[in-house]
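Customer escalation, tier 2.

The customer says the design service returned an amino acid string that "doesn't look like it belongs to this structure." They asked us to rerun it and document both sides in this ticket. The original structure tokens are below, unchanged.
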């Protein structure tokens, strides 16, 4: 029964730890899938103790229900010791009531005393027993893997708290900006700020990494602002050419003073006047040349208005970029004042 138990125990342990390794792999995969349950340490000691207990209980039950009959044991004893069925015969006879049967029993008893049970019933390791270290090693590796991946310095709690506060400030800034007109340019900037806030909210965020990300964002905004300013210069040249050729003094003054909203409104009025003028000319059956001249003026005014709308959009983009850059500049200054040290095993 002991030999049967050992073989059964090795088999049960193999399959128990194989199942435990599968559970450990699933536990490790939970955070990757976005589930928070797997973020807690895998209870390897409790799980291993439970696996051993279940395997032992299963092996005990198996060895008990598969225990061989005494005659079967005696026959195996005879076969392995050269007993020529003496022990099996003695077991079958039982008490023995005749001199011959008692002599057979005595001879079997003496024979059995000279043979070691371990030689007759050797422990042979089953195939699962040889493979048992594999699932045990897998279980240990999957349990320690998260710790290995996260090894290294841990963030300074002071820095972590400050980064969380700055993330909250960014979110507040973004919330206020979203109440304004959301042009595609402004929307893109706010999305980048939201991603930065998300990075700073991470408990593993570092000051150095935060400053690097912030610096990259500011460089991109600065480059974008310079491009918008170049567009503004190009538009100003186009509008300047119109001013030089236009006879409407008020419109030229508004454009010269940068009152592009007023200038766009004035163009709308001029277009309405030209439409009315064209209508009257058509009623008077004026020559086509006169109508063509009115159309040409309207086209020029429409082109100018299109440029004015572009100018308004560019000015808004420049203003937005400046506001964000000013905010990020203050943020950079606040992060720069934070301590630099990180903690290893709870010590700076």
């Amino acid at each position: 029964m002991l030999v049967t138990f050992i073989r059964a125990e090795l088999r049960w342990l193999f399959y128990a730890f194989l199942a435990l390794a599968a559970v450990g792999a699933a536990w490790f995969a939970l955070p990757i899938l976005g589930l928070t349950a797997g973020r807690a340490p895998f209870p390897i000691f409790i799980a291993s103790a439970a696996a051993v207990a279940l395997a032992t209980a299963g092996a005990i039950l198996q060895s008990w229900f598969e225990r061989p009959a005494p005659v079967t044991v005696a026959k195996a004893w005879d076969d392995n010791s050269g007993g020529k069925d003496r022990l099996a015969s003695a077991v079958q006879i039982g008490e023995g009531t005749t001199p011959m049967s008692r002599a057979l029993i005595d001879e079997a008893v003496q024979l059995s005393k000279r043979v070691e049970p371990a030689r007759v019933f050797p422990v042979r390791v089953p195939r699962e027993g040889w493979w048992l270290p594999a699932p045990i090693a897998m279980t240990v590796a999957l349990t320690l893997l998260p710790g290995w991946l996260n090894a290294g310095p841990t963030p300074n709690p002071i820095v972590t708290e400050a980064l969380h506060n700055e993330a909250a400030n960014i979110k507040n800034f973004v919330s206020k900006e979203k109440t304004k007109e959301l042009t595609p340019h402004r929307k893109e900037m706010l999305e980048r700020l939201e991603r930065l806030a998300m990075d700073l909210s991470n408990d593993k965020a570092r000051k150095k990494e935060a400053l690097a990300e912030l610096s990259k964002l500011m460089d991109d905004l600065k480059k974008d602002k310079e491009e918008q300013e170049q567009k503004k210069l190009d538009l100003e040249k186009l509008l300047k050419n119109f001013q030089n050729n236009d006879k409407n003094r008020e419109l030229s003054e508004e454009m010269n003073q940068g009152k592009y909203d007023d200038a766009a409104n004035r163009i709308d009025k001029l277009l309405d006047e030209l439409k009315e003028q064209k209508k009257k000319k058509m009623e008077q059956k004026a020559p086509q040349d006169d109508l063509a001249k009115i159309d040409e003026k309207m086209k020029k005014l429409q082109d100018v208005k299109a440029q004015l709308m572009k100018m308004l959009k560019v000015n808004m983009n420049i203003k937005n970029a400046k506001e964000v850059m000013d905010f990020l500049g203050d943020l950079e200054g606040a992060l720069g004042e934070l301590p630099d040290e990180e903690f290893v095993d709870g010590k700076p």
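Tier 2 assessment: The sequence is consistent with the input. The longest helix spans residues 288-336. The radius of gyration is 45 Å. Sent an explanation to the customer and offered a walkthrough call.
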